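Appendix B, example 12.
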Amino acid sequence: MRAYLVTLTLAVAAAPAARADVTGTVVDAAARPVAGARVGREASGAHVVTDASGGFSLPVGDGRITVVAAARGFFHGSAVVTAPAAGVTVTLASVPLDDEPGYRFQSPQTCAACHPDQVEQWEGSPMALAGVNTWVYDLYDGSGTAGGAAGFVYQRDSALAADNPASECASCHQPEPWAATPFSPMLPLAQAGSQHGVSCEVCHRIAAIDESKLNAPGLYPGVVRLARSLPYEPVQFGLLGDVAFSSGGMRPSYQPQLAAAVCAACHQDKNDPDDDGDFEEANGVVSEPTYGEWLASSYADPSSPDHASCVDCHMAATNARAACSIYTPEVPRPDGQLRSHRIEGTTAAYLEAALTARLTVAVDGGELAVDVELENDRTGHHVPTGVTVRNMILVVEARRVTDGRALASTGEQVIDELGGVGDPAAGYLAGLPGKLYAKVPVDAAGHGPVFFTEAASLALDNRIPAHGIDRTRYRFAIPEGGGEIVVRARVIYRRAFRAVVDAKGWTTDGHGRPLEDVLAPEFGHVMARVESTIDAPAPADGCGCRGAGRGAGLGPGLLLALSLARRPRRRRRC
């Protein structure tokens, strides 16, 4: 038996996995070496990078394989070899970057012929519906909903409207017509379905984005460079550097900016108060900050264990084995390499995975002391983020278990007026124990919140950055007789300040779905909920009625109904 064991051990040790190398050089059409090119086996997801002389050594299993090389500014190149192999040359052809403004973007249904899964994921998504968002129209020209003309309307009320009536809304929400005619206005809502929102080719035709000018909105000329090539030299930019297939309207080219920087085109912008087309000046206020927040976080650092791009988080991994329905690569793609094109953000799953809430309750000085900690431990940018009307509200309450009696607040930490002034039973939360988290732009006179185009500064930005922790304390009077007390804290997300919702009469979101902001019992989407129970002794004086704490709001926050609800028209100075 001992001899058998020794023989078996030797046999296992003598049979390592087969390994072979493919070595060679990546060159351009003029036979010049291409340094920094990615070289890998088709569809494997693994790659090496060429050295200064264009050389590479690719470890693979032996046998017949397809080697693919990719570099920015070039179409992919490939070679079929039998490994091991040496002296392999892969030639890359340059992508023509002469843009043709007359080029017509292909319909997503054309793309669906080869990419049905991706188009099906995209259909009905916020990207697909960007051009028909009724909230955008209500704020742009008042035409989105029945009450859309109430409150602030850019074309009617903005100080910039006389000189810039179209604004730059179409650059993000209707990029196809904007790309054909920059600075064009939004199409009438009844015609908006003729364009395709943020469609397949809007993203996959972006050859470059100037990362020194990311505050410009959308497909802004001079910032975003499109490659709308002629029919005989088509290009589709992507992140998969190991695609060997090339035919008809599909010639792949590696574009690493699609992982994050391209997202900045519409998820990082600043207003332009002097309307001179320079969005990097100090006089503006960042209105859409998401990309910049990510860029400043550890999530943007490739060397950090946190590292995750926009694609990593917002395009969920799939188990699809091939990117194309009419072409099968020589090996199936590994799980998670292909991503969903639904591109989600503020769905229930994302909101509920954004942060962690913690609650500590104790009896202190005859009162109930409550500490709440909110940690942004699962989001790569601030919470909340996006356009300035979005907000998040922490609501803290305490009740006696036996009779449901609400404990009176004796602390000063209360929800700002922007949480809505009115009946709490109808979702107006201002003055209740808790905190509102938002970015509040004001005009030059300090009035606000105002629509982002009118912003001169920020009166408040208390949103929680990536890895940030916000701590607040609350105090409640223990009722006569004491008893078992349950303390609850919930964090709710609102798509707009309540005064804006009321002014416009919104009952659905911009895509026609029921608006949770106005739906009982939560009046917003619950992102986190935590509770704790404690036995509280009766107060020493036998009385638990010290009264509610006084509010500490912004003061001018209630002016929202006058500023965003309807700002007086002002003449612009020359």
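The longest strand covers residues 483-494. The two ends are 99 Å apart (CA to CA).
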